[in-house]
Write a structure and sequence with these properties.
Blueprint (H helix, E strand, L loop, with lengths): L1 H8 L5 E10 L11 E2 L1 E15 L3 E6 L7 E4 L13 H12 L6 E8 L9 H16 L6 H15 L7 H8 L4 E6 L4 E6 L7 E7 L10 H16 L12 H7 L5 H22 L7 H15 L4 H12 L4 E5 L6 E7 L3 H15 L5 E5 L6 E2 L8
Parallel strand pairs: 4-6
Antiparallel strand pairs: 1-3, 1-13, 2-7, 3-6, 4-5, 7-8, 9-11, 9-12, 10-11
Helix pairs in contact: 2-3, 2-4, 3-4, 3-5, 4-5, 8-9, 10-11
Bound molecules: alpha-D-galactopyranose (GLA).
Length: 383
């Protein structure tokens, strides 16, 4: 990273920061309903080599972008002004300034192993890496959750994606060996130990390679539907509806909103159930709950797709303990909880099923919960 930074910007970086992608174990689309989620950080990470500048310019280079350096004036950073990937880092600087932090420019070189469009939060990893770099470069002293919320503000207010806070909180606050139990309304989180290997299990990610795009309006429409349902039910957010309230809610709402509400209410309950099992050391017991979560996304929230359904069905037919599409929806990645000694056979079944269906070959890899965002230059082998 330092070598690349030097050759691009002709000077030394002040440091290197890292922020990971994430997968969500359970608790999908609950974050913008003030609810609960349970993500883990994954080992795939975005690295940023950064140097502070005091001339009001933000210069951005990405090893994946393969293009020239974006050279932006801080004074020109207004929502809508940047429409490429550069909107994510530029948005973080905008969000910091909008929140009253007197930060200036920087040179940033970015290199990432988080696959883009795979539902693994590559944009949140990029935003959080920039937020953590700026926190140190400008001595802001902000906490990890505060940086995460500024990163979410960047995505909402500058990049124009109306996401919740789960991805940025996961990238910023996760620890190795644990899931992050998020209570969005309370603004709190707890680490819940999750080490499937210790039980002879594996968590597999299957990237279906069907690209989702949160900016395409479907996500915003779902969010608006939930907010409308909450208003009609007279609550601040769907978090306030319990499973016992569902029959009455079903009678009070227009028919098309009922399944949305049912998904959110049952999904919040599934987060609580999974956390209880993990705390009791019963990892295998969460498998069926993950699969129920998928059925709810498919049938009630209606954001699955044929490829994700095929992964889930194939994993379960091949003896997996549970599987579900993860993230925003409409493709991206599926997670599967499987016995270690079945992992290779289950992976092969999924690949075969995709071939038979004429789909692109999926990417399969195991993951363990990894660390959240941090400064890392001392960990990087220098060349
Ligand atoms: C995307 C959003 C998150 C969350 C998930 C669904 O990843 O960025 O805020 O809403 O979808 O759980």
């Amino acid at each position: 990273m330092k070598e690349a930074f030097r050759s691009i910007f002709g000077t030394q970086p002040h440091g290197i920061w890292a922020a990971p992608g994430r997968v969500n174990l359970i608790g999908e689309h609950t974050d913008y309903n003030d609810g609960f989620a349970l993500p883990i950080a994954i080992p795939q990470t975005t690295l940023i080599a950064a140097r502070r500048r005091d001339d009001g310019r933000l210069r951005l280079h990405s090893a994946q972008g393969d293009g020239p350096v974006h050279d932006l004036a801080l004074a020109d950073l207004v929502p809508g002004a940047v429409t490429t990937w550069a909107a994510y880092p530029a948005g973080v600087v905008w969000a910091l300034r909008e929140a009253g932090h007197s930060v200036g420019g920087a040179d940033l070189h970015i290199d990432s192993t988080v696959p883009v469009g795979a539902g693994l939060s590559s944009s949140a990893a990029l935003e959080c890496a920039v937020a953590f770099a700026y926190n140190d470069l400008y001595g802001l002293g902000l906490s990890a959750p505060t940086l995460a919320l500024l990163a979410q503000r960047a995505e909402n207010g500058f990049a124009g994606v109306p996401c919740g806070a789960m991805d940025q909180l996961a990238s910023s606050c996760c620890t190795a060996g644990a899931t992050l139990h998020l209570d969005i309304r309370a603004g709190s989180h707890e680490q819940v130990p999750f080490a499937p290997e210790s039980e002879g299990l594996r968590l597999l990610i299957v990237d279906t390679r069907v690209k989702h795009d949160l900016g395409d309006g479907a996500y915003a429409a779902l969010r608006a539907g939930c907010e409308r349902a909450a208003r009609l039910l007279g609550v601040a957010a769907l978090r306030d509806i319990t499973p016992a309230d569902l029959p009455a809610a079903g009678r009070a709402l227009p028919a098309h909103l009922v399944p949305l509400v049912r998904h959110i209410v049952t999904e919040n309950a599934r987060v609580a159930d999974v956390v209880a099992h993990l705390r009791a050391g019963r990892i295998a017991a969460i498998g069926p709950i993950l699969s129920e979560g998928h059925a709810s996304l498919r049938d009630d929230y209606r954001i699955s797709c044929a490829e994700s359904d095929l992964v889930v069905d194939t994993v379960l037919d091949a003896g997996g303990l549970g599987a579900r599409q993860t993230g925003g929806g409409f493709g991206g990645s599926v997670i599967a909880l499987v016995a270690e000694d079945r992992a290779a056979a289950i992976g092969a079944s999924v690949t075969r099923a995709f071939r038979t269906a004429g789909y692109r070959e999926p990417n399969l890899f195991p993951v363990s919960p990894a660390r959240g965002a941090r400064r890392i230059e001392r960990e990087v082998a220098e060349t």
